[in-house]
Sequence to fold (600 residues):
Amino acid sequence: MSMRQFEEFPNLVTMFFRRAEAKGNAPFLWHKSEGRWQSLSWADAARQVTSLAVSLADMGLKRGDRVMLVSENRPEWCIADLGIMAAGCITVPTYTTNGERDHQHIIEDSGASAIIVSSQKLAAAVMPAAIRATNAQHIVGIEPLRVGQTSGVKAHDWSDLVGKSDIDVAACAARAEAEFKREDLACIIYTSGTGGAPRGVQQHHGAILLNVAGCVDIISNDFGWGDEVFLSFLPLSHAYEHSGGQFLPIGLGGQIYYAEGLEKLAGNIEEVRPTIMVVVPRLFEVLRARMLKTVEKQGKFAQALLRRALNLGEKDMKGGVPIWDKPMNLFIDKTLRPKIQQRFGGRMKALVSGGAPLNPDVGIFFHSVGLTLLQGYGQTEAGPVISCNRPSVGLKMDTVGPPMKGVEVKIAGDGEILVRGELVMHGYWRNEAETARVLKDGWLHTGDIGEFDENGRIRITDRKKDIIVNDKGENISPQKIEGMLTLQPEIIQAMVSGDKRPHLVALVVPDPEWAAEWAVANDIKYDLKALSDLPAFRSAVMEAVDRVNRQVTLTEKVRNITLTPDGFTIDNEMLTPSLKIRRHMIRQVYGEQIDALYRG
Fold:
């Protein structure tokens, strides 16, 4: 496969059909059923995609109509997405965690004519919204839906739509290739947002194709292009997984396994043995914490070996392992690193981190134990991948790598990162004011502050709107401090505050596992809420904060904390589905507690 073909594909549907024609009966999509991994071939997927496209047309949907897709990650998600696009319609993916109000906003705002929902459970929030919406006419249940009466919205069964026998795959592929262009709208992805109502980002076929081409360029030139296996874990309704976890493997002719969920992720990794995985930083932090605890239980020798590995990994990142350390590095290569690599399946080429800033210490940790971690950077408004680290340029964990192929980046006078290229969205759906605010003279204004290093790699210094400006006018990065706090074993989540204030304070969620161990050691009954009110427990957590304070500048020190036993979650709307904290929602609940820290 040549790189040029990615630049010449007229649309995403054509890319899929060409890969399906070449791969035939080879496995493509995998899911776990009754304890066994089961596959759907490329040829079967192409037949189902064609059947769905024909069925949508038979239902009366026309080119440009929007179809909302509400489903957890599963083979049917991919079939639905491609089938919608093959019909000339536009996919509107939404999060499974959305409530009825969110669904109604997206149905109304997008003008969706039809909705595909995976299960009765998810339909409970979707159906009332669909019935109240003025435009929704059809609802499709991937699993059979219990519908007492239609109430103006006609219900359809998935198996009927994808199981047509009188279809012509070649004709569907030819029509897609002839009629759909790179500039045509492929999907409207509603940004989860750390504040405000979700906005619909218009992603055209060319934006995602350029992203795929840039990622393939890195894989083929830096790692070698082979039989790639992906484990899909992040929600496909997020642009990062949609482009990187679905269309990238399609472009590579790879296989996609759908993970069973967070609690089974570690086991799935060992079973599937993926070659590439797309993950958010929070998951890396969780995996790092688990690995540290495992090593701790293995005794002093294992702990000393890990400390030595981390020391060598840091040296390697800064310029290479010195010759006198080579024997020890070789010993670790033969002992510690293979064991950890096997926990990740043993053939992992790269773990790709995106969606939020990665703490450099986490990156160095994974590099030290023999896993290649690439930090990328992007936004839904840009396909979403703008840049990514790659070994050929040199991995540096405080950067997000150079811009990808076909992407132009410049730094504005105020430090804001501006992006131009085919990957940039055509605007927000039906929102001219917001579009005009971020798209100026062809440049996407990202709202992120950054700089280039000496090798052309982008270094993100902060989110423009998240910068804390204290009462002395000094700028402080809250994400940097929060990242350092959550690396401490005592702290699982934190939000730093201090805008227009004399110093920083933090709202801290104690790590439940650490708290349980502390309670046992201090002969106190474990109850996280009760512990959070104990001065001795608060002092123990403050010791972790003080460890961080010793590593930062005077301005960045956290002077006071308040504890909450209740974590930030997607369900309580304090986390976005990509696990970023939503500051305004946290402040709504804990604002008085945070403000009280300045009065104490």
